[in-house]
Each structure stands twice: as C-alpha cells, then as structure tokens.
Design brief:
With 81 residues, this protein is an alpha+beta fold. The protein has one helix and four strands.
C-alpha cells in the first residue's frame, strides 16, 4: 500500500558504514482516502530505496514526537565520535 512518496531529506545513519535515514511525505499510506503521514525510513544499504525499518507518523503527532526526541537528546544524547 501507499501512495505518492516525496523524499524530503536523506542523511547518514551514525555508527554505520553505509546506512541512511530518510524522511518523506507519504500520501494515502493505508489506501484511498487515508491521511498523509511523515515516513521515517532506516536503511542499512546506501541507496535507501528499500528501508529495513519504517515508521509512519501522522502530522498531528509531529509536535509531540519532536518534543520527545528533544527530551531524549537532552537527557541521554552524547556527541558523535
């Protein structure tokens, strides 16, 4: 399933040789009429066309997710080596 996927950004997955994180806008992820989501993909291969893991986040939950990620970084994050 899933409609049009528009990749917004890709960047290197820290701690891997070829992994990437991709963030995209995905329309109709669950079929006709379903609301769009932000799709976060983790790929261990450089091209990232087929992520090994995906998370679909409704736009209505982005602020909460961003706050939770900022909290995790503040509490537990360390500088990359």
């Amino acid at each position: 399933m899933g409609g049009k996927n528009t990749i917004l950004t890709k960047f290197a997955l820290a701690g891997t040789k070829n992994g990437i994180i991709s963030v995209s806008h995905l329309e109709e992820p669950y079929g006709n009429g379903s609301f769009p989501v932000v799709s976060i993909g983790i790929a261990l291969k450089k091209n990232g066309e087929e992520p090994d893991w995906k998370a679909h986040i409704p736009y209505e939950n982005l602020d909460e997710l961003i706050a939770a990620l900022q909290d995790a970084k503040a509490r537990f994050g360390t500088e990359s080596k």
